[in-house]
Amino acid sequence: MVSSFLYFWVVIQKINSILLVDDDPDDQLLFQEALSDADNSIQYTSASDGIHALEQLNTEGAVLPELIFMDVNMPRMNGLDCLKEIQKSTKLKHIHVIMYSTSCSVEYQKECFANGAVDYIEKPNDFKTLCTRIAGVIRQGILPAVNTIPPAL
């Protein structure tokens, strides 16, 4: 009997830059501090809503982030609408987007995954948990983009 094995390698990319899209300045500051605690070599930028994020991302010559943390509930353009715009853009759709919100509706999470989000993280209530979650994302790195709905949902 002959056995055959399938071997494959997945290259995980280190995260060098993150964009946080969140309308709450306090949440932006806490996120920045937690990110700095996890890895202070990561370049951090922020945007106050979806429209501001798209303006930054579409600026001529802009250095694009490898990862976006996207709040769900924001004025002018919410996170899901911004995610949809990112996925429509050939320039931007390769960027991994993690939805990041206090809202944890399973149906909304499914909609986010169906529209290209790679993860959905509930905003923690304390700084220590925030640090742990961000450090976990940083340790995981970035896998090649595959947008699918996780089987657990």
UniProtKB/TrEMBL annotation:
Annotated GO biological process: phosphorelay signal transduction system
UniProt keyword annotation of DNA damage present: no
Positions of modified residues (4-aspartylphosphate): 71
The organism's place on the tree of life at top rank: Bacteria
Pfam families in the cross-refs: Response_reg
Keywords, alphabetical: Phosphoprotein
Response regulatory domain segment(s): 17-138
Protein name: Response regulatory domain-containing protein
